[in-house]
Each structure stands twice: as structure tokens, then as C-alpha cells.
Specification:
Structural class: alpha/beta
Number of helices: 4
Low-confidence stretches: none
CATH topology: L-arginine/glycine Amidinotransferase, Chain A
Shape: globular
Largest sheet: 3 strands, mixed
Order of helices and strands: EHEEEHEEEHEEEEEEHEE
CATH superfamily: L-arginine/glycine Amidinotransferase, Chain A
Strand content: 25-35%
Strand order of the largest sheet: 2-1-15
CATH class: Alpha Beta
Radius of gyration: 17 Å
Number of strands: 15
């Protein structure tokens, strides 16, 4: 059974953390409506959506990917790089404990789930403003006994690794070469449309690639290569530096 763990939008989302985008007004009702559409899209792709209530005092709580990483054997509870967000972790850990044994990243490490791209038994981990070297080291220590390896990737011009690099198959990625160091990747790199630099953040569910509808040229590139693509409008949520990956934790409950 495929689970998509989500969390509703905080009414304080306009006070979210921002690093690379200017702060503009975010309409809460519109953001919440787009998030419900996103959840419905996940359902149409075969996931059972488990939607947690919003944490009203945590503006970024909808971005459930950052506080945790779910593997087949364990769930890793992260220590996020933005101190103001660390209050999101406890209730998310309680929800994940129903499905996986929990392990924890500890101080002085920082790690955001948005900096981790899993392809088979390899985890590409971004060294970013939110994830430090100790976070990479501790993650490797926690997951190596389960047969995973870690490949660090330098992140330069974006918030998280997944802002610039996401899997579209077991051997190919959609990638913005300008935002990260591609040398360690060792996979086929598919170029996005040049006028859509944020288009690399896509969510692969089974044989389908889910992406924002704001990137039609990149969708066309993927479809011409034979990929099945679905889109969703996340334009209001994108004002909070959101992508389609960061608003869900998708995993198989039966492994």
C-alpha cells in the first residue's frame, strides 16, 4: 500500500522561511485549496493520503518532506537547518512511528529531507544552507547498515538539492546544472526548458512524473522522451519556495 503522508497548510504560511525568493503576499485560502488539489492528485496516482492537521504556530509545516526521510527499513527524523522549523518534527515522528522504526539526526548535524534524493539504494545528499557535513556523515552512519550508500552533492544556487535535481527513472534525472555540482551524479541528465529554471523539482510516483503546471515546456520535453506526466497548480504555495516533492512523504507501507 502506497502512503502519501501530508500536512495541511498553516494559516501563518505567509511568515514562512525564505532564502532565495523575495517575500510576497501569500493568500492562505488559495494555498490551502491548491494543497487539497495536490492531495487529490496523489490519490489519483494510487496513494492513500494520510493528511495530518496543520500546526498553526509553524508557518512551514505543510512541507513534511524536510523533517524526515522514509526508507524501506527505517524513518530518519532530521534536525532541520532552520531552527525555527524544528518544532515540526515531534508530531511527524509520532505519525511515522506507525510505519517504521525511527532513528534521529543529532546536534551539531543539520539535515533537511529536501536535500536527499533516493535512487534505488543510493542517496544523493545535498550540502546546502540547510544540510551540513555532519548531517551527511550521520545519515551515512545510520543507513549504511541497511545497505544504502551516500553520495554528497554541492548545492550552490537553490534552497535544497531537490530544487535542482530529481529522479525521473532509475537511471535518469531532471537537473539544473547551474545550481548544483553535477560531477558526482553519474546518471543520465535530462535538461529542462531554459526558460523554466525551477522545473527540476518533480515527484516520481510509479511510472508517472508529477510536476507543477507552471512548466509546460519542460513537460513537453519529458513527454517527447516517453514519460507519463501529470501536473498540478501549486503557484500560491510556490511563493513559499515550495515544489511538488516537499509537500508529501511517499512510501510503501508494506515493505
Amino acid at each position: 500500500m502506497l502512503i502519501a503522508l501530508t500536512r495541511r497548510v498553516s494559516p501563518r504560511i505567509a511568515a514562512c522561511e525564505l532564502t532565495f525568493l523575495p517575500r510576497v503576499a501569500i493568500h492562505f485560502a488559495k494555498a490551502a485549496a491548491q494543497h487539497r488539489q495536490y492531495e487529490r492528485k496523489l490519490e489519483t496516482l494510487g496513494a492513500l493520503v494520510v493528511s495530518l492537521p496543520a500546526l498553526d504556530d509553524q508557518p512551514d509545516c505543510v512541507f513534511v518532506e524536510d523533517p524526515a526521510l522514509v526508507l524501506d527499513e527505517i524513518a530518519v527524523i532530521a534536525r532541520m537547518g532552520a531552527e525555527a522549523r524544528r518544532g515540526e518534527s515531534e508530531s511527524l515522528a509520532e505519525a511515522l512511528a506507525k510505519y517504521r522504526p525511527l532513528v534521529h539526526i543529532r546536534e551539531p548535524a543539520t539535515l533537511d529531507g529536501g536535500d536527499v534524493v533516493r535512487i534505488a539504494r543510493t542517496l544523493y545528499v545535498g550540502r546546502s544552507r540547510r544540510t551540513n557535513d555532519e548531517g551527511v556523515r550521520q545519515l551515512h552512519e545510520l543507513i549504511a547498515p541497511h545497505g544504502y550508500r551516500v553520495i554528497p552533492v554541492e548545492v550552490r544556487e537553490c534552497l535544497h538539492l531537490k530544487s535542482a535535481f530529481c529522479a525521473i527513472s532509475e537511471d535518469a534525472v531532471l537537473c539544473n546544472r547551474q545550481w548544483i555540482d553535477v560531477e558526482p551524479i553519474g546518471l543520465e541528465i535530462i535538461e529542462f526548458a531554459a526558460e523554466e529554471p525551477g522545473a527540476a523539482d518533480v515527484l516520481r510516483i510509479g511510472e508517472t512524473i508529477l510536476m507543477p503546471e507552471a512548466f509546460p515546456r519542460t513537460r513537453e520535453i519529458l513527454e517527447k522522451r516517453g514519460y507519463r506526466v501529470e501536473t498540478v497548480d501549486v503557484s500560491e504555495l510556490a511563493k513559499a519556495e515550495a515544489g511538488v516533492t516537499c509537500m508529501s512523504l511517499v512510501f510503501d507501507a508494506n515493505v
